[in-house]
């Protein structure tokens, strides 16, 4: 027997699709994938793995990805199990996928297609469904071997194709039209999200984005911190759609917590593109909470994969606090804060499930966000009333008094970068209120 797992009542009712799995053990490099993670992906997709075919290669075969001997072995297993689906734990080129389907006479799904299928099952909001459909269409546009005639009905069917147009050309045109339509809809969604971000920036509310490898416990931590009910389960990509909630940080005040989609090694580039609006929450955040499963065997590799995706979405420069979750699974796990040589928080060890270490996380967030906070008393002259109006609009004035000569004494609290923007809008030099770095050449 291959992977054994308990079957839920829902699966017994729906019936899982059976599949033969293929995993090639490549040397360390771009083609190397994790077998255990493949198992989790297959189970998350709702498939029932019947058998596993493994092999060792230095490089993929250009025609079939695997050798002809393995192709024959898979064909025999398909006949033995009366199965019509083969899943590869690797990204296949369109030609390799077509050649394999022709040789095996069944459907072939690569790692990218498998992840896309899981995303399609998990998407709940209108935006999430559009993003997944866009990624699926872009992935399948080079694999038009099973046809897209179902799209014809959306375009009117008869009368929609050009003179002398082949079915393949029609399918490609329909895909392009649908992709353009989804892009337009997503542009509206992005505009709405950008409007929400600008409103948060104007109100000087810091944003903290929770990122991490899928199934590291991001949603569990998010729910525990915000007493929300975001769907969380012990499965890959349990939640896709971003959720924003308010959270109180000691000495800072209210911040916005954003729960984002989980990352995975070799996350398909088309998915990164499609979920750009969602991932933008991380790129625009004031602080990233990088949640890590500290008990995972592939912990270091998972951290590296998350860093790669953050770099791809231009979020690598955002201040980051690592949160090593699931210390309850360690033999001697204790909640603690790790600090750098300057005493700044670098990592927090906690258990989201047991709610152990939350006070330390709150403390670390406050220290890191406090470095970027302008919390000072300032004195404005009557001619500088424009700055006062700008700060009031941003909700940054926490107290106000007037001096005998008419000067305004304000207690201001907001993000330092937002205070700098306010000074620029009011036409006031930063040196008026902010200490300027010394020029080393003048020492």
TrEMBL record:
InterPro entries in alphabetical order:
G_HFLX_dom, GTP-bd, GTP-bd_M, GTPase_HflX, GTPase_HflX_N, GTPase_HflX_N_sf, P-loop_NTPase
Outline the extent of the Hflx-type G domain.
206-373
Q: Provide any one GO MF term from the record.
A: hydrolase activity
Superkingdom of source: Bacteria
Pfam families with a match to the protein in the record: GTP-bdg_M, GTP-bdg_N, MMR_HSR1
Q: Please provide the record's keywords in A-Z order.
A: Cytoplasm, GTP-binding, Hydrolase, Magnesium, Metal-binding, Nucleotide-binding
Where does it primarily localize?
cytoplasm
**Membrane spanning residue stretches:** none
Query: Which locations, inside or outside the cell, does it occupy?
Result: Cytoplasm
Q: Matching SUPFAM superfamilies, A to Z?
A: P-loop containing nucleoside triphosphate hydrolases
Record note on quaternary structure: Monomer. Associates with the 50S ribosomal subunit.
Q: What the protein does? A: GTPase that associates with the 50S ribosomal subunit and may have a role during protein synthesis or ribosome biogenesis.
Q: Family per UniProt?
A: Belongs to the TRAFAC class OBG-HflX-like GTPase superfamily. HflX GTPase family.
- Name it: GTPase HflX
The organism of origin for this protein:
Bacterioplanoides pacificum
């Amino acid at each position: 027997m291959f992977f054994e797992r308990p079957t839920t009542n829902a699966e017994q009712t729906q019936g899982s699709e059976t599949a033969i799995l293929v995993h090639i053990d490549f040397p360390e490099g771009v083609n190397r994938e994790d077998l255990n993670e493949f198992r989790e992906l297959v189970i998350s997709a709702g498939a029932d793995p019947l058998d596993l075919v493994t092999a060792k290669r230095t490089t993929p075969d250009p025609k079939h990805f695997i050798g002809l001997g393995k192709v024959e072995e898979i064909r025999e297993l398909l006949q033995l199990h009366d199965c019509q689906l083969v899943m590869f734990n690797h990204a296949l080129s369109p030609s390799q996928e077509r050649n394999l389907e022709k040789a095996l006479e069944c459907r072939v799904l690569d790692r990218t297609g498998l992840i896309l299928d899981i995303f399609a099952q998990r998407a709940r909001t209108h935006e999430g469904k559009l993003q997944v459909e866009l990624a699926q269409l872009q992935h399948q546009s080079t694999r038009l071997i099973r046809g897209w005639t179902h799209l014809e009905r959306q375009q009117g069917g008869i009368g929609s194709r050009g003179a002398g147009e082949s079915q393949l050309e029609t399918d490609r045109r329909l895909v392009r039209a649908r992709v353009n339509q989804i892009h337009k809809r997503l542009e509206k969604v992005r505009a709405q999200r950008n409007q929400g971000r600008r409103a948060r920036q104007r109100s000087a509310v810091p944003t903290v984005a929770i990122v991490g490898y899928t199934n590291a416990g991001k949603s569990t931590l998010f729910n525990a911190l915000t007493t929300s009910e975001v769907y969380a389960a012990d499965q890959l990509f349990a939640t896709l759609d971003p959720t924003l909630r308010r959270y109180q940080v000691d000495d800072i005040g209210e911040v916005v917590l954003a729960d984002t989609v989980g990352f995975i090694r070799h996350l398909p580039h088309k998915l990164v593109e499609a979920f750009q609006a969602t991932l933008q929450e991380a790129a625009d955040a004031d602080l990233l909470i990088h949640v890590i499963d500290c008990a995972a065997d592939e912990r270091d590799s998972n951290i590296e994969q998350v860093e790669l995706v953050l770099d791809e979405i231009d979020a690598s420069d955002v201040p980051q606090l690592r949160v090593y979750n699931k210390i309850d699974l360690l033999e001697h796990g204790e909640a603690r804060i790790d600090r750098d040589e300057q005493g700044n928080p670098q990592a927090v060890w906690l258990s989201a499930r047991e709610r152990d270490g939350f006070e330390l996380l709150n403390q670390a967030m406050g220290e890191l966000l406090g470095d970027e906070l302008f919390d000072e008393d300032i004195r404005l002259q009557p001619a500088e009333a424009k700055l006062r109006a700008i700060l009031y609009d941003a909700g940054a004035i926490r107290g106000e008094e007037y001096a005998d000569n008419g000067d305004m004494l304000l207690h201001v609290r907001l993000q330092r970068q937002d205070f700098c923007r306010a000074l620029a809008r009011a036409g006031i030099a930063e040196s008026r209120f902010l200490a300027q770095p010394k020029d080393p050449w003048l020492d």
